Amino acid sequence: MRPGTLQLPALPPLALYVHLPWCLKKCPYCDFNSHEMQPSAMPEQRYLDALRADLEAALPLVWGREVHSIFIGGGTPSLFSPQGIDRLLSDVRARVKLAADAEITLEANPGTFEKDRFKAFRAAGVTRLSVGVQSFNDGFLRALGRVHDSRQAIAAVEEAAASFDTFNLDLMYALPGQTLEQLEQDVTQALALMPPHLSIYHLTIEPNTYFAKFPPVTPPEDLAYAMLDRITEMTAATGLERYEVSAYAKPGHRCWHNWNYWQFGDYLGIGAGAHSKISFPHRVVRQVRKREPKLYMDNALAGHAIAQDDEVARSDLPFEFMLNALRLREGFALQDFRDRTGLPLSAIEKPLQEAQAKGLIERDLVRVRPTERGFDFLSDLQGLFLS
Ligand SMILES: C[S@@+](CC[C@H](N)C(=O)[O-])C[C@H]1O[C@@H](n2cnc3c(N)ncnc32)[C@H](O)[C@@H]1O
Ligand code: SF4
To answer: How many A from CA of 132 to the centre of ligand 1?
Structure first.
């Protein structure tokens, strides 16, 4: 490797992301790399073989580094058998140094047969479940193309609480035709289940989805803002802190894996379409794996799972860092900017001054934090750091 132009004084913490790409049914709003598949037809063993080969081929990039968290995402990872997840985690443990207190999250959908596996996922080593509920209203669940109803969602969250010390519940808001009262009902039901961590996303109409082709009528912007205000009030009243734009947690229950993304930490992503960001002393590299599951398996098993491998341009690093760090209520330490981009603070002094003059950030000699206004106009704030 020729020397890069950056000077990273230390490498950031490292996380592992594992992508499992299949779902029972494709939701009309979803642009994740997920593909419809009947569980009986799922090539579980072959995919696990491919993941192992993928990880082995990637090891030289992260040699000797400790892995602090694993996130098994999708798709619907809970379609995999507990034995399959157990094998995956054994394969990982045998190849990388996993921190003793590593957080291991698995994304689960609230289908009935999946709920009955939650305890077995725990026994396989998963420490945290992330349950994708989206809404507790059967009408909205149907409109969102979900395969579960609200009764199943409640049962799944109760089972997650019984099986795990910590778990996350995903909701979406600003749903087609949703009123403020209906949003309040969803949040009230979610809070009644006392989740230690809640993620609430504004429904976005993503390109190349069914909803992009046949757009539903979603609430106007001012109503969506009013919904967000209600969410923030209602969650705060039950002791959940909004620590990131879409994430709310009880003390001690923040998601370490996502926290690491937002702090511009490193992650190795294995599996179909998975993204990686890996730092070296003089460069930061991004990789993407082959996206289509069959193509991914064939290529990973032959030792070349990677579709794209690029060095992040020096001029792109400030914006990439801010895209993540400014999502956090606590913002970032100036030292972390230096450590993780390898750039001097002078590289961001001008946009920082502009952001401060516009009331979008506050800062002292150590940290930079988005203000309330900065949180409300986040993309404008992040845009100031574009090269
Ligand atoms: C990787 S996805 C899927 C997890 C799981 N398969 C599920 O659907 O429950 C993680 C979360 O992203 C959110 N999400 C997905 N598509 C979205 C969209 N278009 N707009 C807003 N949130 C979205 C959902 O809350 C979802 O639970
Ligand atoms: S179940 Fe989750 S990953 Fe699968 S299509 Fe629906 S939102 Fe996407």
So the answer is: 7
In the reported structure, the alpha carbon of residue 76 is separated from the centroid of ligand 2 by a whole-number distance in angstroms of 7
**Ligand 1 centroid, distance to 123 Cα (angstroms):** 26
Q: Using alpha carbons only, what angle is made at residue 115 by residues 114 and 116, rounded to the nearest 5 degrees?
A: 90
* Strand ranges of the sheet holding 367-370, from the earlier edge strand across to the other edge: 332-333, 367-370, 361-363
- At position 27, the amino acid (one-letter code) is C
372 class by beta-carbon count within 10 Å (0-12 exposed, 13-18 middle, 19+ buried): exposed
Determine the Cα–Cα distance for residues 234 and 147; give it in Å rounded to an integer. Answer: 28
Closest residue (by CA) to atom 6 of ligand 2?
27
pLDDT in tens, 226-275: 999 999 999 999 999 999 999 999 999 999 999 999 999 999 999 999 99
Distance 316 CA to ligand 1 centre (A): 27
Ligand nearest to the CA of 35: 2
Nearest ligand to the CA of 175 is 1
Instruction: Provide the pLDDT for residue 5.
Output: 80
Confirm or reject: Cβ of 24 under 6 Å from ligand 1: no
The predicted pLDDT at position 280 comes to: 96
- Cβ-count burial of 50 within 10 angstroms (0-12 exposed, 13-18 middle, 19+ buried)? buried
pTM across the whole model: 0.97
